[in-house]
Amino acid sequence: xxxxxxxxxRIKGAKVETITAAETVLDAIRRMSAKHIGCLxxxxxxxxxxxxxxxxxxxxxxxAEGKSxxxxxxxxxxxxxxxxxxxxxGQTVEECMSLMTGRRHRHLPVLVDxxxxxxxxxxxxxxxxxxxxxxxxxxxxxxxxGTF
Length: 148
Prior knowledge:
Largest sheet: 4 strands, mixed
CATH superfamily: CBS-domain
Number of domains: 1
CATH architecture: Roll
């Protein structure tokens, strides 16, 4: 049985850091820096997901273009929801890995009935898969050596 996105969120936690589209890019950069994360979910005042803004978005769409992060808004740098892939809690971690590597996405919002319930990163997926592989290796070593 494969591990699902819901299982991964139970392990890592489902808290999502958010920002509104009207806040400045500098606000987004500062929030990501303070939380040591690479992405924020962009939500409406009602809390509905409208997109994501990543550190790369801020760098490529604002800084590299010579625009000021103090005056440009998150809406100018974010990736809108209509251009993104999202996942559901029932999808497998392996499906997410395939989607992320195939489409070169580093973050996937997790939605249930259109409501944001989590956000997973490529780092979350890779760490989970490496931990699972190490557990399998450890079990096989114990079986082979008879020390289980």
